C-alpha cells in the first residue's frame, strides 16, 4: 500500500532512548487519510506521539467498507525501499501485482508479505468481481541496516499457525506467539497476530517481556489490559509484561503487534525508508527516471508520481514528538 500524501513529512524514528520500558496504556487516535479512488484509511502509525512499535513503523486500518457498487481499492503502481509490507484482510480480496512479476489475490486470513529490500514496485486493487465488503490493515516493517539492500521478494502464506483456547483464537501473522511461529520471513525480533475473542472471554495471553506491544482493534470492543477499545484505535502497551489480560463482552477482534525496540534511526518519507536525506533523494530520482524499481505489468493506469521533496534537508526528530 502506498502513502498517497502529496506532502509527506520526513519521519526519523527508532533508537531505544525513548522506549517505554515498563507497562503503560497509551491510547493513540487515528488520522483519516484518503487512499486511491474510494478508500479512506485510519492512519495510526506514525502517530503524533509515537512512531514505532518494535520494527513496525506504519499502520493503516480500513473498513469495513461497502464496495458492492464501488471499484474498491485502486492503488496504482508505486515504489518501496528499505521495508516490508504486510497485507491483512478480514473481509474482501486484494489483487497484488509487483515488478518481480508476482500476481496474487489475497483473501481473509492469508498473509501477503513483500520485502522491498533495495527496491520494488507494486500495485493493489480490488478485483473486478469482488466481495461487497472490504476490511483490513496494511502495515510496514522497517528493515535493519544490514538487510535493507537485500533482494526484493514476495511471499504468500495461506496456512498460518493458530492458538486456541478459552474463547481466544490467535492467528500468528509474523514472528512467534506462545510457541506458534509464522512462516513469514522476518529480519528483527518481532511478532504480529490477529486475535479474536468470543463474547464472555476472560483470559491471559503469554507475551515476551522484552518486546514492546500495541493492540489495534478491528471489530467489537475488546478489553486489553483493562482498556476497552473501539474499532480503529491503537493502544500502546510499552514493555515489561509476561502476560496480557484480555476480555470481551461481545465477539471482538484485534491485531497484536510487538517486537524488540528498533535500535537504529531511520528516515521515512513517502514510500521509502533510508538512513539519510541522500538515501531518500536518490530513491525519488530513481523512481521518477524509471530506474531501479522495475515495472508493474497488468495494472490499468499509470504509476504514481513521487511528491516533491520538502525545501529543507530531512532532519531527525526522534522516536516520539
UniProtKB/TrEMBL annotation:
Keyword Acetylation: no
Keyword Iron attributed: yes
InterPro entries listed in its UniProt record: Pirin, Pirin_C_dom, Pirin_N_dom, RmlC-like_jellyroll, RmlC_Cupin_sf
Biased composition (Pro residues): 302-314
Residue sites binding Fe cation per the record: 78, 80, 122, 124
Cofactor mode of binding and number, as noted: Binds 1 Fe cation per subunit.
UniProt keyword terms in alphabetical order: Iron, Metal-binding
Domain Pirin N-terminal: 45-141
Pfam families named in the record: Pirin, Pirin_C
Superkingdom classification of source: Bacteria
Residue ranges occupied by any Pirin C-terminal domain in the UniProt entry: 193-291
Chain positions covered by the region annotation Disordered: 298-321
CDD domains: cupin_pirin_C (cd02247)
UniProt cofactor(s): Fe cation
Record-level Gene Ontology MF annotations: metal ion binding
Recorded family membership: Belongs to the pirin family.
Name used for this protein in its record: Pirin domain protein
Amino acid at each position: 500500500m502506498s502513502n498517497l500524501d502529496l506532502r509527506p513529512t520526513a519521519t526519523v524514528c527508532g533508537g531505544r532512548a525513548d522506549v517505554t520500558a515498563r507497562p503503560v496504556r497509551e491510547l493513540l487516535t487515528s488520522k483519516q487519510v484518503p487512499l486511491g479512488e474510494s478508500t479512506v484509511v485510519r492512519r495510526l502509525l506514525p502517530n503524533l506521539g509515537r512512531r514505532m512499535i518494535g520494527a513496525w513503523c506504519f499502520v493503516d486500518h480500513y473498513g469495513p467498507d461497502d464496495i458492492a457498487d464501488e471499484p474498491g481499492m485502486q492503488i496504482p503502481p508505486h515504489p518501496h525501499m528499505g521495508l516490508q509490507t504486510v497485507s491483512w484482510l478480514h473481509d474482501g480480496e486484494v489483487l497484488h501485482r509487483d515488478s518481480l512479476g508476482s500476481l496474487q489475490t489475497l483473501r481473509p486470513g492469508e498473509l501477503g508479505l513483500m520485502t522491498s529490500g533495495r527496491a520494488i514496485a507494486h500495485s493493489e486493487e480490488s478485483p473486478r468481481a469482488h466481495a461487497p465488503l472490504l476490511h483490513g490493515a496494511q502495515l510496514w516493517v522497517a528493515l535493519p541496516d544490514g538487510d535493507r539492500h537485500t533482494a526484493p521478494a514476495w511471499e504468500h502464506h495461506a496456512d498460518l499457525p493458530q492458538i486456541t483456547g478459552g474463547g481466544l483464537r490467535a492467528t500468528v501473522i509474523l514472528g512467534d506467539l506462545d510457541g506458534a511461529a509464522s512462516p513469514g520471513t522476518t529480519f528483527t525480533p518481532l511478532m504480529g497476530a490477529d486475535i479474536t475473542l468470543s463474547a464472555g472471554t476472560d483470559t491471559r495471553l503469554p507475551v515476551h517481556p522484552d518486546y514492546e506491544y500495541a493492540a489495534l482493534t478491528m471489530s467489537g470492543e475488546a478489553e486489553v489490559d483493562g482498556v476497552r477499545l473501539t474499532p480503529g484505535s491503537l493502544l500502546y502497551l510499552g514493555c515489561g509484561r509476561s502476560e496480557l489480560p484480555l476480555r470481551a463482552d461481545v465477539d471482538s477482534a484485534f491485531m497484536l503487534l510487538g517486537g524488540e525496540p528498533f535500535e537504529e534511526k531511520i528516515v521515512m518519507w513517502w514510500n521509502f525508508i533510508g538512513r539519510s536525506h541522500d538515501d531518500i533523494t536518490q530513491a525519488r530520482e530513481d523512481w521518477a527516471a524509471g530506474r531501479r524499481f522495475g515495472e508493474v505489468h497488468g495494472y490499468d493506469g499509470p504509476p504514481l508520481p513521487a511528491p516533491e521533496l520538502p525545501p529543507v534537508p530531512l532532519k531527525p526528530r526522534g522516536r516520539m514528538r
